[in-house]
Amino acid sequence: MKLSCTQENLNKGLNLVSHIANKNSNLPILNNVLLKVNKGGLTLVTTDLEIGIKVFVRGKVDEEGEFTVAAKLFNDFVALLPRENIELEIEDASLFVKSQNQKTNIKGLEAEDFPLIPEIEKENEVEINIVEFKRALNQLIFAASLDSSRIEINAVNFNFSKDKLVLAATDSYRLAEKQIKINNNEERSLIVPLKTIQELVRILNDQEKENIKLYFNENQIMFVFDGVELISRVIEGKYPDYQQIIPEKFITNAKCAKDKLIPAIKSAALFCKQGINDVRLSFAKDEIVIASASSGLGENVIKVPAEISGEENDIVFNYRYLLDGLLNLGSQNLNLKINNNNTPGLLTPESSQDYLYLIMPIKQ
Amino acid sequence: MKLSCTQENLNKGLNLVSHIANKNSNLPILNNVLLKVNKGGLTLVTTDLEIGIKVFVRGKVDEEGEFTVAAKLFNDFVALLPRENIELEIEDASLFVKSQNQKTNIKGLEAEDFPLIPEIEKENEVEINIVEFKRALNQLIFAASLDSSRIEINAVNFNFSKDKLVLAATDSYRLAEKQIKINNNEERSLIVPLKTIQELVRILNDQEKENIKLYFNENQIMFVFDGVELISRVIEGKYPDYQQIIPEKFITNAKCAKDKLIPAIKSAALFCKQGINDVRLSFAKDEIVIASASSGLGENVIKVPAEISGEENDIVFNYRYLLDGLLNLGSQNLNLKINNNNTPGLLTPESSQDYLYLIMPIKQ
């Protein structure tokens, strides 16, 4: 194996792949990045056996071949090199890295022990604008369960129909759902591990004009963009049928401004009893009154101007869940609809129909 | 006690004082901020018994008086209020805070239990530009010992002579010294706790045109700027007589560029044996060659262009100490002077005579 490429391209590629390689310690080769040189250039590959990432790096190939070295060390090292041409060559179970003022060899492991990354047939393709997709995922991931023993909801659900992709995440206390318009031939519902989505959000760029391509079968999903292929297994099982818990009618609806409601909730949160996150919202004429108190700290009452329709009403939420929803709403004005302390409240942006956030109230 | 002031002024004042109040848990009133209202306005006071901070906040006074409330809670709460006028009033052992859309009461403790902050006679005054002073402290604090049992060097030394202030910090492995021109009448050497300097650096602003005023006696030092008074005890004892260990002559001198040397040292650091921070620097004709190796990782050799005068030579440094000095040098070009592995190396900026950084080499 022998190739030369620019520091910039190699550094960019290693930044993308090396994160998931860092987390494995049981099987040493999973700490490594696979360097695969063939005609067109260099492919960098890492995997944690659930997720595989491949990135293509352009370069001048002198000799094909493959090898693996510690991903974090190689990434940290290349990041420090000046923006020059770099030569990579394998000799005596080491990767030799040369550039103008330095020569380095990095011990490695043979490529034959590196796990195979599964392939997906690229028959059906779903295309989405990268920025729109990244924003959608950011509006969901905070609501997914962090409990890795509940694998079906330690995940984001991808429901592909003909004309839309419905994404959902829940931890059973709150639920976020986002709809994206797509063109698609194959209807399928897939549960994608939260870890995959977190990794994807980490490496997705913010190129307004680029699209991401999604491919899937019953066992895997693949995301392709900008020279990167991320492939992940999906979770066997059934995602909760959450549609049935979304109330059809609400007794009270408040329209108000996010930048007024957020500091009010944060302020009420300061006066909660220790370890208890209850904040009471009372919907009256033209305001939401938010109150909390603790005998040790004091009490706090704030009025937030709002357009209230329906009956006067009140409800108690865990302020953390409410804040999570407000902070990810993506719109200045919002609707907050409630019934009573037994059915979930619904938070939606005023400006669009494609996002909803459902919160279970706290029974008093 | 009754007063009104703007959210902006109160928030700014609380941001300055509340940090040191947060750290005390044994004596509950030390978690609190003292609010002292007299004719001119509101004075906020916090202390940890070693450091005291007073900040003056302008306001409209309706009734003089004083009270204390939890500093962190009050600071977090005021930060969330909109930029409006705020009314503060004491009633029933609580601070009542009112503004347009909210009313809050915060439980507190009577002011009479709050410790007295010592005063200093303002006879001798030393004035220094704030930005120059902050930059000087930042060039020193990283070199001070973090070992709180070595109180004389868990500190920064202030040596006031007629026309200059010489600041020094050391942990016995390396030493940083900075000189500042001043006009001063009272010669004195004072050991100021590192914690005081860290707090000072945290709250010093970056107002190019403002000066900070220093007052001191044999027991205390006070820093006054922008409505803030920070007073600290000084440490009894004798600061190490470091002048005697600065070599008068050097065998080898290298002039080189910081932005070439820093990545080279960082790169060598990646290939150090685990837990050992040795990096070898060889001074040859027109370069410094930096090398490190570890049987498990590989080896790394980098050449940094340099103007070498004197003899060819080599030395081993702990890369962390060398990097600390390089990163805080405040100049692109530098001189690195060495003798042998038994006497310290000297790092200075090429452009100025007011800063030096001394590092002990590692004996091989």
Can you put this structure into words, describing what you see?
Two copies of one chain form a homodimer. Chain A is of the alpha+beta class. Chain A folds into three domains: 2-113, DNA Polymerase III, Chain A, domain 2 (Roll), CATH 3.10.150; 126-243, Roll (DNA Polymerase III, Chain A, domain 2), CATH 3.10.150; 246-359, Roll (DNA Polymerase III, Chain A, domain 2). Chain A is built from six helices and 26 strands. Chain A has helices spanning 7-21, 71-80, 130-138, 194-203, 258-270, 319-327, and strands spanning 2-6, 32-38, 41-47, 51-58, 60-63, 65-70, 85-91, 94-99, 102-109, 126-129, 155-160, 164-170, 174-181, 188-193, 211-216, 220-225, 228-233, 252-257, 278-284, 287-294, 298-305, 307-310, 313-318, 333-338, 345-349, 355-359. Chain A has a 13-stranded antiparallel β-sheet. In chain A, strands 14-11-12-13-26-25-24-18-22 form a nine-stranded antiparallel β-sheet. Chain A has a four-stranded antiparallel β-sheet with strand order 21-20-19-23. In chain A, a hairpin with a 2-residue loop joins β19 and β20. In chain A, α1 (7-21) packs antiparallel against α2 and α5 packs antiparallel against α6. At the A-B interface, α2, β9, α5 and β21 of A face α2, β9, α5 and β21 of B.
